[in-house]
Amino acid sequence: MERKTRTISQEELQLQREYCGRIAALWRERGRTPKAFVDTYGCQQNEADSEQIRGMLRESGYEISDTEEGADAVVINTCAIREHAEQRVYGNVGALVHTKRRHPDQKIFICGCMMGQEHALERIRKSYLYVDGAFNPHALWRFPELLYTALTGKKRVFLKEDCDGVIAEGIPAVRSNTLKAWVSVMYGCNNFCAYCIVPYVRGRERSRRPEEIVREVEGVIAAGYKDITLLGQNVNSYGKDLDEGVDFSDLLARLAELDGDFLLRFMTSHPRDAGEKLFRTMAKYPKIAKQLHLPFQSGNDRILRAMNRHYDLARYRELVRQAREAMPELVLTSDVIVGFPGETAEEFEDTMRLIEEVRYDALFTFIFSPRRGTPAAEMDDPTPKEEKNRRFDRLVDLQNRISQELHRDYIGKTVSVLVDGKEEGGLLTARTQGGRLVRFAGDAELIGRFLQIKITDATTWSLVGEIG
Ligand code: SAH
Ligand code: SF4
Ligand code: F3S
Description:
Mean pLDDT: 95
Strand order of the largest sheet: 3-2-4-5-6-7
Bound molecules: S-adenosyl-L-homocysteine, iron/sulfur cluster, FE3-S4 cluster
CATH architecture of the domain at 6-166: 3-Layer(aba) Sandwich
Low-confidence stretches: none
Radius of gyration: 23 Å
CATH class of the domain at 6-166: Alpha Beta
Structural class: alpha/beta
Distance between the termini: 52 Å
Helix content: 25-40%
CATH superfamily of the domain at 6-166: Methylthiotransferase, N-terminal domain
Number of strands: 21
Largest sheet: 6 strands, parallel
């Protein structure tokens, strides 16, 4: 397939690095170290982007702060997935008028998926005059230039970069966690699920070259990160746009063979492209977490078709069977939408039945939220909000019951965990491969180590154990 992706050239990136240098020089002249605050909404993809924004800010001489109060630069990295996410952003951007009044030189930027929608970008430009600039995810790499213009030109800058998508390699990152690292393997999405805004704001699917990913993962392993999550909206279609004959399972295997003490995980897997090769690869390598996030969205075939998901329940059930056969200890999680336009009470019961049948370790549950420009936003939606809320509450109750039952099943088992902290009370905290919280007594020196823990008790939200 012809690769349409534009890779940002090293010259273009060098120019951005020069802007960082100029900004740093500007602050040296002013005689102080500036502070920057980056606020992140949405998914891990946005977290990963924010780490790069912090990286560019640090290269520009900024110290990263954890509050907007008194910050010289504020960046709000937004999410557009549901209306509620957008309302929170408008509310919080609104509140910045006060911090800026107290600190008039503060430069405020809005970026992320919301800014990939022209109407949202225009609303920010027209109604929030104290915001200095905005850019969409495709223009992330141009942030230094934007910051420099705002600092020197006293000009507001709103970039409407083409949403077809680019890949920029080598942007520095300031990672926010000392043990967990995000690594994007691809960007964008081609699936156009009828309800979803992501393909419109993040553009077409494009994969990073395997050697770039290997280099980054080697780097994070060398830096001491232990829990590495590979990111993509649909990782199973990784490589389809490359000419290297490498698919996602091949990439996973290559990374799992790297030296070092680490655990690899990934998200998200679309049921359309996941399959036995992936499950066999996961089962084969001890360094790949036995965890799979496999969103089903609805338990009804008519709704799945209306959602444009490209699989049916028979196929989904078969995937779950294959995955569990390959990995009996698999932790399985999923996403589900309640109240898709036209979902009947009976169709909703199909979703409840699937949840009972599969018994997920955890579910991320959402009420359908119409997104402007997506096909589902135009569909007839006669179900009242109260009815959708009732369905949602029933579904959450069902999943809570299942999660608790599965939690109790851990008692007496020995599980592999990564120790990630120590609580005030003195107990160590750790996460299982599937992400469950485990508490146990031990020395703080164990933080960052993988251990076997025997589970002795289970509360609603965590497991209790001892070094086994
Ligand atoms: N690429 C991932 C999902 C990214 S969005 C995948 O396909 O699995 C995360 C979840 O948000 C989706 O799985 C879906 O359950 C939910 N979601 C997306 N758009 C939504 C909308 N308009 N209303 C409600 N939930 C939505
Ligand atoms: Fe959205 Fe579907 Fe793409 Fe996931 S696969 S990001 S739900 S369009
Ligand atoms: Fe993620 Fe929200 Fe964008 S879920 S991809 S930050 S719309």
